[in-house]
UniProtKB/TrEMBL annotation:
InterPro entries: FAD/NAD-bd_sf, Lys/Orn_oxygenase. It catalyses: L-lysine + NADPH + O2 = N(6)-hydroxy-L-lysine + NADP(+) + H2O. Its EC number is 1.14.13.59. Its cofactor is FAD. One of its GO terms (molecular function) is L-lysine 6-monooxygenase (NADPH) activity. It comes from the Bacteria. This is L-lysine N6-monooxygenase MbtG. Pathway: Siderophore biosynthesis.
Length: 418
């Protein structure tokens, strides 16, 4: 049991980036506590052919410290893959490559303690971390990097089990399913699309794909949409009143929570190829369908959907519920939780430096990564600004500008200076 300056709970990309920059500022004073037995990045969603949605330049460290040894470029060069990857001319690199980069980066750090599932964090003149009833570490400061987990709307939760499951289970279950059976994929986002593509690749011929939006909408990756994914815009958001900020961020949803055009093209072409082979399209698309409930009866599922023109029923043997993700619950002791300020939706209040507002003594800070969509915008749940966010946290923790964040060459005026 050791005392640290800072402990990060979770060793996903968010805390990995923080630990990478932290190590170069204050070596051996930070630990990451991770429940997994070894490093992995959404391992159950690494379906065949999936691509990163972000430029590989947006790695764990480079936009804060371009000379850092844990850059993606260093990974590529030191593993001998740089020329191979470059000459393969990907628009977006395989997600598998990025996962291997993250694993390589995790191996450069000796501060990660795996197999440590933190079930309780208490505070008594310092944060104390408990796993399986044992005190495993203490620290002055806490950083929550817990990520998210799959979720289903209330009306679908009841059918989760043999016949309906989250995409995380698709790889392990798909070989047990009969490709001739009708399968429903619920969810018109990227994970739903990737599930459809996986089923197509496995020879399924009766796939029904449901999405709530008017059509299966592509992600807007245009230069102007990408302006929301830069430090200057995040800075601009900080000065906007809360309610306006919420409205603005809701308007940006298609820049992040949508399907990459490449995936949509791949589905359309595989569907057309399937039609040429079998005489019928293997995928039927059902846009503007809100699947609100379902019931299982023997070997079939009945899905109830609401559309603008009425209600519908659809029968399937199985359903993949790609119905979104929600933030993982922080394992805070009730006494500690009571000291944290929440907003009107029950979410922790996160300030512009990613610190959580709480009633604690000086010298003990809590930071939350990937939990401030309405403070920092959609990129907070994304890889784009990982290194910038980590730099902001470290500058705030050490109360000086250790990492400079420069984004001054901006041609967009989001608001005229008054
Ligand atoms: C399939 C998928 C693909 C994505 N692809 C992209 C992309 O291409 N580009 C992009 O910008 N964004 C992408 N994202 C969004 C986002 O970048 C990732 O979700 C990213 O992994 C978020 O990092 P994180 O560290 O916040 O959370 P996570 O990666 O979820 O890591 C959280 C870690 O915390 C651990 N943990 C949780 N609770 C505890 C606990 N109590 N004790 C100990 N450990 C705990 C978990 O085991 C996990 O390892 C993707 C998301 C998904 C789901």
């Amino acid at each position: 049991m050791r005392h640290y300056h800072t402990v990060g709970v979770g060793a996903g990309p968010a805390n990995l980036s923080l630990a990478a920059l932290f190590e170069s500022v204050a070596p051996h004073q930070m630990a990451l506590l991770e429940r997994r037995p070894s490093f992995a990045w959404h391992p159950d969603l690494l379906l065949s052919g999936v691509r990163l949605q972000t430029s590989w330049l947006k790695d764990l460290v480079s936009f804060a410290d371009p000379c850092h040894r844990m850059s993606f470029i260093n990974y590529m060069v030191s593993t001998g893959r740089a020329w191979g990857l470059l000459n393969a001319q990907y628009d977006f690199i395989p997600r598998q490559e990025y996962a291997q980069y993250l694993r390589w980066a995790s191996e450069q750090l000796d501060c990660i303690r795996y197999g440590t599932d933190i079930d309780r964090i208490t505070f008594d003149n310092g944060f104390a971390y408990h796993a399986d009833g044992e005190l495993v570490a203490t620290s002055d400061h806490l950083v929550l990097g817990l990520g998210s987990k799959p979720s289903a709307p209330p009306g679908l939760v009841g059918v989760l089990g043999d016949r309906a499951f989250f995409p995380e289970e698709l790889t392990s279950r798909v070989s047990l399913l009969d490709p001739a059976d009708p399968v429903a994929v619920v969810g018109g986002g990227q994970t739903g699309a990737e599930s459809v593509l996986e089923l197509l690749g496995r020879g399924f011929t009766r796939i029904s794909w449901f999405g709530r939006r008017p059509w299966f909408q592509p992600m807007d990756d245009s230069p102007t949409a990408n302006d929301f994914y830069r430090p200057a815009y995040v800075q601009f958001l900080q000065d906007v009143p809360r309610e306006t900020r919420r409205r603005l961020v809701d308007g940006h949803v298609l820049t992040g929570d949508a399907i990459t055009p490449g995936t949509l093209r791949a589905i359309s072409q595989a569907n057309y190829d399937g039609m040429l082979r079998h005489g019928e399209y293997p995928v039927t698309l059902y846009p503007e369908r809100d699947v609100v409930s379902a019931e299982a009866d023997g070997d079939r599922l009945t899905l109830h959907a609401v559309s603008p023109v009425g209600r519908e029923q659809h029968i399937a043997a199985h359903a993949v519920l790609a119905t979104g993700r929600r933030a993982a619950e922080p394992p805070l002791d009730p006494e500690l939780l009571e000291r944290i300020e929440l907003d009107d939706t029950g979410e922790m209040l996160v300030d512009s430096d990613y610190s959580v507002r709480w009633k604690g003594p000086d010298g003990h800070r809590i930071f939350a990564l990937n939990r401030s969509r309405y403070t920092h915008g959609i990129p907070d749940a994304n890889l784009t600004l990982l290194s910038v966010r980590s730099a902001t946290v470290i500058n705030s923790l050490f109360e000086r500008e250790i990492f400079a964040i420069r984004d001054t060459s901006v041609s967009t005026r989001w608001q005229m200076a008054s």
